[in-house]
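Notes to self after the Tuesday call (sharing in case useful).
The group wants a holo model before anyone commits to mutagenesis around the pocket. I volunteered. Ligand is calcium ion. Logging inputs and output together so the record is complete.
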Amino acid sequence: MTHTNTNWILAFFGTLLALELVTGSENNEYMKREHSLVRPFQGVGVILPHWDFLGNTMVTSNYIRLTPDLQSKSGALWNYSPIMGRNWEVHVGFKVHGKGNELFGDGFAIWYTKDRMQTGPVFGSKDHFSGLAIILDTYSNHNGPHNHQHPYLSAMVNNGTWSYDHDRDGTHTQLAGCEVRFRNVDYDTFISIRYENDVLSVSTDLENRNEWKNCFVVNNVELPTGYYFGMSATTGDLSDNHDIHSFKFFDIDTNISHDEILQRSNIIPNAKTFEAPREHKDDPKPGMSNAKIFFILLFVVLVTAGVAIFAISYFKDRNARKRFY
Ligand SMILES: [Ca+2]
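Result:
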C-alpha cells in the first residue's frame, strides 16, 4: 500500500469518526457500537462482533432470525458486555412474519438481565430472571380474565423470584402494556425502550411513518447497571419467523459520576407499581378429537354387541338345557 493510500484511508476514517461525534453530540446521545447491531451482520472472517447467539438462531447479512417459521424452535442473541450506564435508550428493528394468517406464535422478548445465554420457558429464555423483559407476545393463551387483543406488548421487572407464565400471557406481573400490530408487513417495524431517571417509556413505529407512538410510560422502575441486553424467541405448535434487523444502544447519561454508576450496580430490580396478582389458570385440557369420539363410540357398540351375543347364546343354552330335562 502506498503512503498516499494510507493517508486517504486515515482521512476517510477520521471524517467518519468526526461525523459520528458531531451527530452524537447534537442530541447528547451516543450510539455505542459494542452494544449495537447494524447491517450488514456478517463481516469478513468475523460473525457478529459483540454478540453471541444460541439455539436455532441464524445470522444472514440482512437479518438475524431468532426462530424460523417452523414448530418447536427457540433462539436467542446476547450482547457480550454489561451496560455501564444508568440512563439509556435502545431501538430495535424487527420483523415478525409467517405463513399463518389466523394461527401464529409465540412472539419474542427483549431482555435487560443479570444472566445471559440462559435458555428457558419464557420466549426461549430463563424464568425467574433478574431484570427487565419487554415482551412482544403474538399468541393469546388467554386462559385468565384479561381482555386485551394480541399481539400484545408488555413489560415485566423481576428480582429473580417471580415467575412468568401467568396464564402464559404475563398479565399477572406486567407493569403495563398495549395492543400492537406488527405481523406480516413489508417494511421494518421498530420498538424504542427508553430508561431515564427510573422512568421506563416504550414506544413503537409499526406503520412505516418514521415516528414513535407511545405504548406506555411507567415511573419508579429501578434497574441496576451491569446487566446484559439480549433477545429471544420461541415457536411451539404455532410458529413465525422472528427476525431482528437492528439493535441500537444509545447512552443518554449526562453528568453521572463513576461512583454513582458503581453504586447502581448493587440495587435489586424493582418496580413500585404492577398489576395486582390474580389466581393462575391452567391451559385448557386439549378437547376430544372427533377420531377419539368415534373410537370410543365404536368400542361401546362392540362391547354392547358382545354382551348381547353372549346373553342371547347363554339364554338359548339354558332354554335348550331346560327342554332336555
Ligand atoms: Ca402468549
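Two things stood out.
Confidence is low (pLDDT under 50) at residues 17-28.
Residues 290-324 form the longest helix (35 residues).
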